[in-house]
Amino acid sequence: MDVIDELLANNQAFADSLPTQHLDVRPRRKLAVVTCMDSRLDVFAALGLGHGEAHVLRNAGGVITDDVIRSLAISQRKLGTREVMLIHHTDCGMQTLTDDGFRAELQEATGVAPAFAIESFADADADVRQSILRVRRSAFVPHRDLVRGFVYDVDSHRLHEVRVDEEG
Ligand SMILES: [Zn+2]
Predict the structure, then answer these.
(1) Is the pTM of this model over 0.90?
(2) Distance from the CA of 151 to the center of ligand 1, in angstroms?
């Protein structure tokens, strides 16, 4: 049995354990979380979030790409969210590569250099600051006063906040 077959069996048990219910498409806590795809960060458990409470946007690194801005614009303008929580984490896979190195690797393997930015980083705190500023500077995202950033420690499971003094 492959992994997806196992997950289908898990889903059957999950669905059996819950009543049929319909929640509003608009997240109840009016919150969007942007974080990494890392397998050790269970966003709902780590933040005490339930079904229907927040949007969770994930990619490699939890970086603010055009597609994340697209999702935040929809989240805020069409689905009522107001706050943005950005979470990077310790021991991130994005710290194991460099933009130039991975770009060259892709080009060598495929003959084509990717059009997208790799967005690797060495310092998670510094990249959180960068991410906060990118959101705060995007006019596509109307509510930018409540954008906060954090780094999650994958060993201790604790968050620490990263602050940006002032945009400059
Ligand atoms: Zn990561």
Answers:
(1) yes
(2) 10
